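We were asked to recover a plausible sequence for a given structure. The inputs and outputs are reproduced exactly as logged, with field labels preserved.

PROBLEM: sequence recovery
POSITIONS: 301
GIVEN STRUCTURE:
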């Protein structure tokens, strides 16, 4: 059983390494998006392995909503600094201050606002390829994308205009102003990511494991109590043992009740779960059946 699992992981890893190397060879100015979440942590390790012992030939970019979990930001800075990578932080707050985007109301989710900040950062630094840790099993819109997902000069995505990728042959040709979003972990599952993290001995932000946190139950989700999330009428703040399956804007990212305090226990919970991580913990994906696809068409990652 262990040998089969390792073989599958190494096959997925090799596929991802191939995609990273191909894009680095075909395009001029790639960048790797890094949020400090488990998928981007796995992707960063894959990218590091693709070029060892040389350093990464491209920088790391984080689009900071300003509504991040402090534990994740601390981990982000430490992980990147220890590895000696170049970190670029694109701030949604800076986009708001510059009038590039408008916040609906103080404390509202900034997930959709990230799109403008990301597109501006790609244009400012002239990046023509952006690696991300998205997986096809996350959400139906992501399942429509190829490993190389092409964006037009406005950063927009058209699902009906994607290039075939027979036998993992990638066509990275783009015109001036276009760019490519690259998903080397496309064929991985949430379980694969966790097993890869276990096999590689990768560190994660502490919020991925069970801990006590003050939360508010809203629309069936456990949102972290914070300066941006306060109890409304009929709600109360509870102290519960929870963990996070995914990280993002804390105003729309829910926790799950859990006692899993190590990787083995987390994997057992995932195996037993019949609800996807985004379906269970991301409020912004519940607004409509096509919420993610609508955002991706606008340029969202």
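RECOVERED SEQUENCE:
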């Amino acid at each position: 059983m262990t040998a089969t699992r390792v073989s599958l992981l190494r096959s997925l890893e090799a596929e991802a390494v191939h995609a990273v190397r191909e894009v680095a060879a075909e395009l001029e100015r790639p960048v790797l998006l890094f949020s400090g979440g488990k998928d981007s942590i796995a992707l960063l390790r894959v990218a590091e392995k693709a070029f060892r012992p040389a350093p990464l030939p491209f920088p790391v970019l984080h689009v900071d909503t300003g509504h991040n979990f402090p534990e994740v930001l601390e981990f982000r800075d430490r992980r990147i600094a220890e590895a000696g990578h170049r970190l670029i932080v694109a701030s949604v707050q800076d986009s708001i201050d510059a009038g590039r985007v408008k916040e609906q109301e103080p404390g509202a989710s900034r997930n959709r606002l990230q799109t403008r900040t990301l597109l501006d950062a790609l244009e400012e630094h002239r990046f023509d390829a952006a690696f991300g840790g998205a997986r096809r099993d996350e959400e139906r819109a992501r399942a429509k994308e190829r490993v190389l997902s092409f964006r037009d000069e406005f950063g927009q995505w058209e699902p009906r205009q994607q290039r075939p990728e027979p036998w993992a042959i990638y066509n990275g040709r783009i015109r001036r102003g276009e760019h490519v979003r690259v998903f080397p972990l496309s064929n991985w599952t949430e379980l694969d990511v966790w097993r890869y993290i276990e096999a590689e001995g990768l560190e994660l932000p502490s919020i991925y494991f069970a801990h006590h946190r003050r939360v508010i139950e809203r629309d069936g989700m456990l949102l972290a109590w914070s300066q941006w999330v306060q109890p409304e009428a009929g709600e109360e703040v509870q102290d519960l043992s929870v963990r996070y399956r995914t990280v993002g804007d804390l105003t729309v990212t829910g926790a799950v009740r859990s006692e899993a305090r190590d990787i083995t226990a987390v994997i057992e919970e995932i195996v037993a779960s019949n609800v996807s991580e985004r379906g269970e913990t991301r409020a912004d994906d519940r607004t409509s059946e096509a919420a993610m696809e609508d955002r991706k068409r606008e340029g969202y990652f």
